[in-house]
Amino acid sequence: MSDSAAVEAALADAHRREWARVLAATARVAGDLDLAEECVQEAYAAAVRAWAGSGVPDNPAAWLTTTARRRAVDVIRRESALRARLPLLVEPAGEPGEDAADPDAGDPTARDPDDRLRLVFTCCHPALAQEAQVALTLRLVCGLATPDIARAFLVSEATMAARITRAKKKIAVARIPYRVPRQAELPERLRAVLNVVHLVFTAGHTAPSGPSLVRADLVELAKGLTGTLRELMPDETEVRGLHALLLVTDARRATRTDARGRLIRLADQDRSRWDRAALSEAEALITGCLRMARPGRYVLQAAIASLYAGAPTYERTDWPQLVALYDELLRVWPSPVVALNRAVPLAEAAGPEAALNEVERLERDGRLSGYQYLPAIKADLLLRLGRGGAASAAYRQAMDLTANEAERAFLADRISSIRMS
Amino acid sequence: MAQYAVLIYTHDSAHDPAATAADTEPCDRHSDDLAASGVMIAAYALTPRDMATSVRENMITDGPFIDSKEVVAGFYVIEAPDLDAALAIARTNPVVGDGGGVEVRPVHSSYLRPATE
């Protein structure tokens, strides 16, 4: 590898792995998210030249952080008289002001992991709209550029830029503190963080629109974020639960569509091609978490996904156990979507009639109107009860509600197979 | 320290001119608590929605500006070091958990006429 190629590779690696660490540590000194971002970008740019000359440093994150923080301190000195910044409310971790006074003191990333946690919790503060939480997390924690985030969430670049700017402004004006929540607030605040990561994963796992079912880049980002969270909060069972859920769900990635990108149902997927290593890693995580008192939402979701995936064949899935896990999940997370998904194992454990009653009850409830999987599941059940006409109508209803091409094609296939039978 | 306005949203204000001390007791007790703790710097309890009059360009109408289930029943200004602290104070309002809620907004600036003789 040539020198410049080695530097480029080291930089790409540092961007992927260390962005959050460098930005989080810089933000504390800069006291301003925009300034911190500017300085971190400049530090990465400076690294191209510096590393080509003197080689890649042993600790690239420390080098980048020191460089970014020096710039931040320079800018603050130069501008303090000129412009009033809206300060980021940094709650001091050690003695107040020590960092701002000397950006080079000690290992600049030594305060880690707290700084990355501050960054994550600030991005996912419940005072910000969830779509803003997602955008900020991808931008500040993952280092994604605004146009990429806009593309991932199917909004214009201008809209996404405005969303991020507005969120940063609210952080400063409303004084959302740059700190890790106190123990008493932690469960609620952690839930917001996990929901954001799960949302990024879901957006990748089933892309809301477009030609392909999966957007691998978002899936990888979500997995990376979960890895970071586990490193930062190794004792939180819900973090482990989310990690397990992503592992199980993504272990089936290769078999969810055929060579032409068409959707394959769980029952028809080739189980021999699932990622066994990921599945057993998840299972070990889940077993550990279930032993703890009162498993939370993500642990239970992971346990459900793992039970589905662990069966030797779809037919031999442990349906009664699945229904029991769904009941448990409904207790901690009473969501109509969970109740709908429960209908699937219920149909096997108690028959399609019982499941259909449940789905129709949810339909009347109205909260899931617009949710494509309700008519899709209803159609499956109607079909099993020999009511082809009603099933066709329900499949068509589901089709009208999804913009994902792979899902639409799948539903169209189901409708034409009813006509032929 | 920063100032935050807390807007109380509930079905209606308890502070009817004919209200008894018992009617307004929960609100008044909360107000006394905040005043005693020193975090509150101003507070206004408003009369019920029936007393409201709304003004638009060519129209004066009876009732609150926005016709909805909840109205602003009162507001107060607190001082807090950050949003988390402000939200923690706001959350203790008795309307929270009684069908209503509060909105917390950072104060930009304020004016109070100096007291005259």
Give an overview in words.
The complex is a heterodimer of chains A (421) and B (117). Chain A has 421 residues and is mainly alpha-helical. Among the domains of chain A are: 3-88, Rna Polymerase Sigma Factor, Chain: A, CATH 1.10.1740; 349-421, Serine Threonine Protein Phosphatase 5, Tetratricopeptide repeat (Alpha Horseshoe). Chain A has 19 helices and 2 strands. Chain A has helices spanning 3-30, 33-54, 60-79, 98-101, 114-123, 130-141, 146-152, 157-173, 186-205, 216-232, 237-251, 276-290, 297-310, 319-332, 336-350, 352-365, 373-384, 388-401, 405-420; strands at residues 209-210, 403-404. Chain A has a two-stranded parallel sheet. In chain A, helix 13 packs antiparallel against helix 14 and helix 17 runs antiparallel to helix 18. The longest helix of chain A has 28 residues, at 3-30. Chain B has 117 residues and is an alpha+beta fold. Chain B has one domain (2-106): Alpha-Beta Plaits (2-Layer Sandwich), CATH 3.30.70.1060. In chain B, 18% of the residues lie in helices and 33% in strands. In chain B, the strands form 2 sheets. Chain B has a 4-stranded antiparallel β-sheet. Chain B is globular and about 40 Å long. The N and C termini of chain B lie far apart (32 Å). The interface between A and B is small, with 11 and 9 residues.
